[in-house]
């Protein structure tokens, strides 16, 4: 299914010049002149119609003629939300993927930052491996005034290409040297959860981190190790492994590998709630009780964590606040393009639930 979808996407990019303004008008069920007015950001077009046309442009992969008179200089009052994903599924959002859960929750906060402004939002999911050296349609179509990049799945080459486009950009959820960024204090969050396990008498710790392809995995591991180094009580054993995928399946396979290697932790830390649920599923199949046999603590405090059995102790990263602040940073960058680069780190807090027990 994924392979077929990737072929469709590639076809759209290769045949992008075959899509005309008439095709867009048909898809949006409006006139050709209405499409033209939307492209040129005419105030005469209702917001609902504008979004309908812009969505049709995105779905068809239509690229307006950027050499048309005055087109590149016009503001659209549209901000792009670009979610970097591991793969492009048929679903608009994949709630087994922690990156997309994070993006969804952050996106609740972003509109709050747009209250009393004329800006609207367009969303796109983008996967670098499946799109090779291509750019997201949000950028190729030259119709956004600013961009949020959510997720850690991109490197310097991609960042440089985005920067060369000259679009005001803020990176959400990771540190970045090219753009303004806002992120939770990843190191502090894992430090808190590791310290909590040590203080509650756990001696054999296992940390299941996010994939090594995520730049955030380094800060997370540093928090785990620093908590151990600074603790007066040292664990008897500790293990750290990177999940292959940033989702439940990744967590399931990671703990399976640990278990089949004969390692028996008395506490497990998960890089996020999606990975944690995969771990819990495997332990349930092995008839391992949480927290009686193994304590579990996670990171992120997504809606999933409160509905697991038992409810997960986790680290809250205040995603809605991150979304609101990201919006404020981006609007400031649009208004003051020469201002000093912003680097904002939001502190985290530990949320105590039912998955950690005090051991003697």
UniProtKB/TrEMBL annotation:
| Residue span, HTH lacI-type domain | 19-73
Query: Which PROSITE patterns does the entry mention?
Result: HTH_LACI_1, HTH_LACI_2
Task: Kindly list the GO molecular function terms attached to this UniProt entry.
Answer: DNA-binding transcription factor activity; transcription cis-regulatory region binding
Q: Which CDD domains match?
A: HTH_LacI, PBP1_LacI_sugar_binding-like
Q: Which Gene3D superfamilies match?
A: 3.40.50.2300, lambda repressor-like DNA-binding domains (1.10.260.40)
The alphabetical list of record keywords is: DNA-binding, Repressor, Transcription, Transcription regulation
User: What's the protein called, per UniProt?
Assistant: LacI family transcriptional regulator
Taxonomic path: Bacteria, Bacillati, Bacillota, Bacilli, Bacillales
């Amino acid at each position: 299914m994924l392979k077929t979808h990737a072929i469709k996407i590639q076809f759209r990019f290769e045949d992008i010049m075959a899509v005309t303004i008439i095709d867009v008008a048909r898809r949006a069920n409006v006139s050709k002149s209405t499409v033209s007015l939307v492209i040129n950001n005419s105030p005469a077009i209702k917001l609902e119609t504008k979004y309908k046309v812009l969505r049709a442009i995105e779905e068809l992969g239509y690229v307006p003629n950027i050499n048309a008179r005055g087109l590149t200089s016009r503001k659209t009052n549209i901000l792009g939300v670009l979610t970097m994903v591991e793969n492009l599924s048929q679903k608009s959002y994949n709630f087994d993927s922690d990156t997309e859960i994070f993006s969804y929750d952050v996106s609740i906060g972003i509109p709050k930052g747009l209250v009393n402004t004329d800006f609207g939002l367009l969303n796109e999911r983008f996967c670098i491996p499946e799109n090779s050296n291509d750019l997201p349609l949000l950028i190729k179509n030259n119709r956004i005034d600013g961009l949020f990049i959510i997720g850690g799945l991109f490197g310097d080459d991609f960042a440089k290409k985005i920067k060369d486009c000259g679009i005001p950009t803020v990176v959400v959820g990771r540190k970045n040297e090219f753009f303004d960024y806002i992120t939770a204090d990843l190191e502090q969050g894992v430090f808190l959860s590791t310290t909590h396990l040590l203080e509650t008498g756990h001696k054999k710790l296992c940390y299941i981190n996010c994939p090594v392809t995520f730049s955030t995995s380094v800060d997370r591991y540093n928090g785990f190790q620093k908590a151990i180094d600074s603790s007066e009580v040292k664990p008897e054993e500790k293990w750290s492994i990177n999940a292959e995928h940033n989702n439940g399946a990744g967590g399931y396979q990671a703990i399976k590998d640990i278990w089949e290697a004969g390692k028996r932790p008395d506490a497990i830390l998960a890089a996020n709630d999606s990975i944690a649920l995969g771990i819990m599923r495997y332990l349930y199949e092995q008839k391992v009780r949480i927290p009686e046999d193994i304590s579990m603590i996670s990171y992120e405090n997504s809606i999933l964590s409160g509905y697991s059995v038992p409810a997960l102790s986790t680290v809250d990263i205040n995603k809605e606040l991150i979304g609101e602040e990201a919006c404020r940073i981006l609007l400031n960058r649009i208004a003051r393009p020469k201002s000093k680069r912003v680097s904002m780190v939001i502190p985290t807090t530990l949320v105590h639930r039912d998955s950690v027990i005090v051991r003697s």
